Amino acid sequence: MTTVARPYHHGNLREALLRAGEQALESGGAQTLSLRELARDVGVSHAAPRRHFADKQALLDALAQNGFEQLGAILATAVADAGPDFDARLLSLGRAYIAYATAHPALVELMFASKHQAGAPAELTEAGERAFAPALGAVAEGQAAGAIVAGDPHRVAIVAFAALQGLVALANNGMLGDDPLDDLIEDAVRRLLLGLRPRA
Fold it and tell me: How far apart are CA 109 and CA 105, in angstroms?
């Protein structure tokens, strides 16, 4: 039997490991993730990943941070593309978030678990805050324009997020039946907006 030597170096090993790690996460979950297996998948020696990730937890934290960075860019684009109208922005945000969360269910679960774990790296928690800054900003601007109720914009945003996250959970667990997800997003946003309108 011939042993094939694997190279120690890789053109962009960190990014390759993150891509392979995300694929492994979605197919098998965090418990099955292994630095040694990822090294084999990207074609480097089993010791090479430790140049970038000290252990499996460091890789998981990096995956979560990377996920928040991706999500933040997606939400920022959703707000920008929707224009200044708050109703359009909320619908655009809802569609963008749910599309991401249903396409990457294991990653999103890891993102939130990692962000709230004791001793989470500062750069991870900061990435999590930045990711939702576009949505929080849209809420604050909607309040300033009189489109939605006044109050702590963070609490208003949490209410909206809870409704969207509920749809994500139902979709990811196959509980929506034949109802088109996009129609349900529109219904949820319409009802959210009715509840958020200022009262005389």
Answer: 6
Predicted confidence (pLDDT) per residue in 125-158, tens digit: 999 999 999 999 999 999 999 999 999 999 999 9
Contact 86, 143 (CB under 8 A): no
Place of tokens 């319409």: 190
Contact (CB, 8 A) for 35 and 53: yes
For residues 164 and 96, the answer to whether their CB atoms sit within 8 Å is no
Question: Residue 2: phi, psi to the nearest 5?
Answer: -100, 130
How would you class 172 by CB atoms within 10 Å of its CB: exposed for 0-12, middle for 13-18, buried for 19 or more?
A: middle
**Domains in the chain, start-ordered, CATH in brackets?**
8-53 (1.10.10), 67-196 (1.10.357.10)
Question: How far is Cα 101 from Cα 97, in angstroms, rounded to an integer?
Answer: 6
Q: How far apart are CA 155 and CA 158, in angstroms?
A: 5
Which long-range contacts does 193-197 make (Cβ < 8 Å, 24+ apart)? 193/87, 193/90, 193/148, 196/148, 196/149, 196/156, 196/159, 196/160, 197/147, 197/148, 197/149
pTM: 0.89
